[in-house]
Each structure stands twice: as structure tokens, then as C-alpha cells.
Design brief:
Length: 415
């Protein structure tokens, strides 16, 4: 009897250990971030909620998915300062500090504000094994491409053509581009503006350039937004209600949307398209219940715009570019580290963007330099169709795109 009891106890202990082992394996497999065993870390740097809400929220969603480093997970989030132009050293320090972590294997920077390239150079000198991915770079393409492993921008070359064309489809006959010198010194933004102007000339629209205060200047975000609020009625009166407005800065977008809804003008999409960027504040929406559910967010925004009588006048992308890019770059980095993806593959880039934006198709191409017309295979441009609130998709991704650089050359030759 004693021998039988001993055997049964030994068997029970063995089964218990097996069960515990299986439970641990399941936990590790299903939620790898819930322990102290994340094999590597991914650092994500975004702006704060006041300047770059979508980018930060995208990072928070990846922390929810893969866990925070401080809790044994994969992802750690840091912010660059709101006044990043005047505080480049702080931005650089934040990026370089990621490399102090021996388990750091990738750094995601979205947006790539001034100082990004200098920081990546320091990171690579210290830790060449760390992958550095940049979303929405604000620095010279040649500079950031020389140090980053991958840069992803909205396809501002093609959008320079498609946005005015979309405005015309929506009913506008005048296109007003609102920006400021700092943004116009950014090569891709300046190039997009030139393409927009050439496109307006090609399709028979009037193009107007207006200047607004830089939110990173002494007036700050409140002063820059107040300027837009004050100027919009005058601009609509001057150019007419059949005018589409476009702002290169996120902070300008909210007051612009507010006045477009009130005054009956047009707005195609944001500089960094999103269902919430600018719309949340302009429409006074509470989207806490819909947070992270982009179809639900789009539905609520659309219902509100229709109620305000602005149906067919306001557009966006059904999924946020800033949010989706933070997610996609983080996911891409993780899979590259694990040997499951290649950041040099446009197919892998499109696939991962698509996973985070069900129902929305993405186009992706390598950036072609305007000066030497050579393809840059570490700089991808992505594009999503324009969604007009109250009307639906415009089908802009199906448009036949002309040789944009030739069109631009021809336009410049006419001037």
C-alpha cells in the first residue's frame, strides 16, 4: 500500500509539473510580452498628443499588443518635445538613449523631425546592429536616407497630383495651400506644393499659396490656430465657397476643418490623413468608446459631418496614416528581427500596412529623386484612397497617374 501511495504521489507531481509547463508555454506563445523574457526591445519615439496624437496612439496600441519594456514586454515609448525645432538636442538625446539598452534591436521614429538623422548616426556609431526606421521624415531625403535603414512617407509625389484632382471631383474650382517657410524648406513638402500647382494648371483650377504662423515659433500652437480661425472667413469670402483648403501642419488642420464645416468650403484630406486628426476637436467629438476602432470612428465622424450639412465637402483616409505607420513600422521591425520579413520588400511593407487597416488597400513604391530621377530603395512612399464623408471613396488609387516629374518640368518651362 505504501509503495502504491508513493507511486501515485510521484505520478501526481509529474502531471502537475507537465501541466505547469504547458500553461507556461501557452502564456509565452499567446502573450509573449507578459513576462521578463522578451528577447529584444523596440524603442518608439513620437510627438506628444498635442502635436502628433495619432503617432503616439499607434505606439500605445503596439505596447498593448506586445507589452511595455518596463513590464517585461517588447516596446518602450518616448516623446520628442512639442517645440522640436528649437530643442533638437532633446530629440537627439531621446533617440540615442534607446541605444543604452543592450536588448534594443530597433528604433522607430515617427515623425522624423529635425535632429533625427544626427541621432541615428550616433546610434549607428554606437550600436550598428540596431535597425532604425523613420516615418514621415521632415529632413532632406538624401540626409535621412544616408543613415536610416528604412524611411516611409505618405506618397506626397503622387498626392501632389491626386489631392487637387480630388478637390475638383468634389466640386472645388480653387485650391488654397496653407503653409510656412520651415515646412517649405522640407524637400518633399516643397515638391508636393510644386506638383499641386502644376496639377491645378493642368486640370484648370486656380492655385493659391497662403502663409500662416509656424506652430513651433513664439506664437505657439494657440497663436497659430487662432490665426487660421481668424483668416478662414476672409479667405472663403476672397476665393469663394468652391475653394478647397489644404494645410501642411497638423495644428492648423483643426481650426481649418471647423471653419470649412461652418462656411461651406472644401477639405480633401489632411497632410497626414486620418479620421481623427483635426476632426475630433473641430467637431467636438468624444471618441473614447470607439478608441482604436477605426471603422467605428469613421462612422461617428461621418454622421456628425452629415448632420452639420457638410456632406461631400470633407475628406480623409479611412485609417490614420500616423497611427498605422507607427504600428506598421513597429510590426515590420519585430518581424525583421525575427527573420519573418524584409524591410527592403515593398510587398512586405504593403502586407503589414494592410493587416492594420482591414478593407483599405495600400499602394507602395520607392521614392524617385527629383534631381537625378534615381530610385531610392530604402525610402518607401505609401498611399491610401480618399474617403469623402457622406459620399464614400473617390477611387483616387484607380486614377491613371501621368509622368509627374515631366508635368512639373513642362509647367516650370511655361513660367
Amino acid at each position: 500500500m505504501k509503495k502504491l501511495i508513493s507511486i501515485l504521489l510521484a505520478l501526481a507531481m509529474t502531471l502537475s509539473l507537465v501541466a505547469c509547463s504547458k500553461k507556461d508555454d501557452a502564456t509565452s506563445k499567446d502573450a509573449p510580452a507578459k513576462g521578463d523574457d522578451a528577447p529584444f526591445h523596440i524603442g518608439v519615439l513620437t510627438g506628444t498628443v498635442s502635436q502628433s496624437e495619432d503617432e503616439q496612439r499607434g505606439a500605445e496600441s503596439m505596447i498593448k499588443k506586445y507589452g511595455d519594456v518596463k513590464d517585461g514586454g517588447y516596446v518602450i515609448l518616448k516623446n520628442y518635445p512639442d517645440n522640436f525645432s528649437a530643442e533638437q538636442e532633446t530629440t537627439i538625446q531621446q533617440i540615442v538613449s534607446f541605444a543604452d539598452d543592450p536588448k534594443m534591436k530597433a528604433i522607430i521614429i515617427n515623425q522624423g523631425v529635425p535632429g533625427t538623422s544626427a541621432a541615428i548616426k550616433q546610434v549607428k556609431e554606437k550600436r550598428p546592429d540596431i535597425l532604425c526606421f523613420v516615418g514621415n521624415s521632415q529632413e532632406d531625403p538624401n540626409l535621412v536616407e544616408s543613415v536610416a535603414d528604412l524611411v516611409i512617407d505618405p506618397d506626397n509625389v503622387t498626392r501632389g497630383y491626386l489631392i487637387p484632382l480630388a478637390a475638383q471631383k468634389m466640386g472645388a474650382n480653387t485650391f488654397v495651400h496653407v503653409s510656412f517657410p520651415r515646412h517649405m524648406s522640407i524637400e518633399l513638402l516643397s515638391l508636393r506644393k510644386d506638383i499641386m500647382e502644376a496639377t491645378c494648371d493642368k486640370i484648370g483650377m486656380k492655385f493659391v499659396m497662403e502663409t500662416a504662423p509656424d506652430p513651433t515659433s513664439d506664437v505657439g500652437i494657440p497663436g497659430a490656430q487662432n490665426f487660421i480661425l481668424e483668416q478662414m472667413p476672409a479667405w472663403v469670402e476672397k476665393y469663394g465657397k468652391d475653394t478647397a483648403f489644404f494645410a501642411t501642419n497638423d495644428a492648423h488642420t483643426e481650426p481649418m476643418l471647423l471653419k470649412v464645416a461652418e462656411l461651406g468650403a472644401y477639405f480633401v484630406e489632411q497632410d497626414l490623413p486620418s479620421p481623427i486628426l483635426g476632426y475630433t476637436g473641430a467637431l467636438n467629438l468624444d471618441l473614447k468608446e470607439q478608441a482604436g476602432d477605426w471603422p467605428a470612428i469613421l462612422k461617428k465622424v461621418e454622421e456628425t459631418v452629415v448632420e452639420k450639412g457638410a456632406s461631400g465637402h470633407m475628406g480623409l483616409w479611412a485609417f490614420s496614416f500616423g497611427y498605422s505607420t507607427t504600428q506598421a513600422l513597429t510590426e515590420l521591425a519585430k518581424r525583421c528581427i525575427e527573420g519573418k520579413a524584409d524591410f527592403k520588400s515593398l510587398d512586405d511593407i504593403k502586407t503589414i500596412f494592410g493587416e492594420f487597416t482591414p478593407g483599405a488597400e495600400w499602394g507602395a513604391s520607392w521614392y524617385i529623386d527629383n534631381e537625378n530621377r534615381k530610385e531610392r530603395t530604402n525610402h518607401a512612399l505609401v498611399l491610401q484612397d480618399t474617403y469623402v464623408l457622406g459620399s464614400g471613396y473617390l477611387g483616387m488609387t484607380k486614377e491613371e497617374i501621368p509622368d509627374i516629374y515631366k508635368m512639373l518640368d513642362d509647367f516650370k518651362a511655361k513660367q
